[in-house]
Design brief:
alpha+beta; single chain; 12-stranded mixed β-sheet; 5-stranded mixed β-sheet
């Protein structure tokens, strides 16, 4: 399944809902085509579960749906973990009722629209992220970028996973704009796969860690390279060099639909031109190892995101090619879809962040 959060406009203002991506009558449409064209559907899980309950003559179908199939992905995963039982029910029901749902002949018990064309809604980051941890799992990429900076990959990298934490409130979804930070002249993209936690994990052995993965999505670690270089020189890790924007989406793909992360063909397109192609290959540290290592005496919660780190040849710094304001950046991966963001110009006004220092 493909799990999405989407925004619709109502008389009370915009509302975010949780849904599953559905190809409709074109069952052969792949994730990349659906994301790029907006030609598929997103089915409102809460509304569809209410309609299903009404068909089954269950009492209080809307109340039942609100209790058992919340309109929020985090809440639904908190109830069921990665199994997402009511979502599976809705997915199976669509096989029989899909045409009626798509045509609008079938609605919820209170007249709710059950399915929306993807082109008519705004996709949001697919999950609310309590903590984003970005790892570095691809050796070739690190050897290349460290070499460009005159650095050596530390021996400790081969001993255990390393990650930095990022600002989870800076998430942007598919087709949302990213504003160029006013303090940088070197803005970059980073092509990553991310795992999303669907079941809390604490002190979990690596053999059990896979059961805690809700699914996978694309992550764009936008980076202000000149700012990042100064921060890294102070050994504090990324700060303003990273936390202005993180692309996440377009949706979460459950593990059954992406069984081999390492062999997923991926691309970066800038204004429609292919800048990079990569099949990640083996990761130094798997997502299961990342979860297990992190879970030692620490809890990973539903919605936590673990980034893979940039895949080989997956950023402008490695390619020595740089994006500009106005560019459209697309991360693409077979089975996962396309995460597309447009870079808008920086603010005109500056922030007077430095206090006035009087002359001695």
């Amino acid at each position: 399944m493909k799990l999405a959060t989407f925004r619709i406009n109502t008389p009370l203002g915009p509302v975010d809902r949780f849904g599953i991506i559905w190809a409709g009558t074109d069952a052969q449409a792949d994730a990349v085509t659906i994301a790029r064209t907006g030609g598929g559907w997103v089915v409102d899980v809460n509304a569809a579960f209410a309609a299903l309950s009404a068909q089954q003559r269950k009492p209080a179908p809307t109340l039942r749906a609100n209790a058992f199939a919340p309109a929020d992905l985090n809440a639904c995963a908190a109830l069921y973990g990665p199994a997402l039982d009511p979502v599976q029910e809705v997915s199976a029901w669509l096989v029989e009722q899909g045409e009626a749902v798509a045509s609008g002949q079938l609605r919820g018990p209170q007249g709710e629209v059950l399915a929306h064309r993807l082109g008519d809604v705004q996709l949001r980051p697919p999950v609310r992220v309590p903590v984003l941890r970005d790892f570095a799992a691809f050796e070739d990429h690190l050897l290349s970028t460290f070499g460009k900076m005159g650095l050596t990959l530390p021996a400790e990298w081969y001993e255990r996973p390393f990650a930095f934490k990022a600002n989870p409130t800076s998430m942007v979804g598919h087709d949302q704009d990213v504003q160029w930070p006013a303090y940088t002249r070197k803005l970059d993209f980073e092509l990553e796969i991310a795992a999303v936690v669907g079941l809390p994990a604490r002190n979990v052995d690596v053999t059990e860690a896979g059961a805690h993965i809700l699914g996978y999505t694309l992550l764009n670690d936008f980076s202000a390279r000149d700012t990042q270089r100064g921060e890294m020189a102070n050994n504090t890790g990324p700060f303003k060099g990273k936390d202005f924007a993180w692309g996440l989406g377009p949706w979460i793909v459950t593990p059954d639909e992406l069984p081999d992360v390492a062999r997923t063909p991926m691309r970066v397109l800038i204004n429609g031109e292919v800048w990079a192609e990569s099949t990640p290959g083996e990761m130094q540290w798997s997502f299961e190892e990342m979860i297990s290592y992190t879970s030692q005496d620490e809890t990973l919660n539903v919605g936590d995101v673990l980034g893979s780190g940039t895949v080989n040849h997956g950023c402008g710094f490695e390619l020595d090619r740089w994006i500009s304001a106005g560019d459209v950046v697309e991360l693409e991966a077979a089975g996962l879809g396309v995460l597309r963001n447009r870079i808008t110009p920086p603010r005109d006004a500056t922030v007077a962040w430095r206090r006035h220092r009087s002359a001695a």
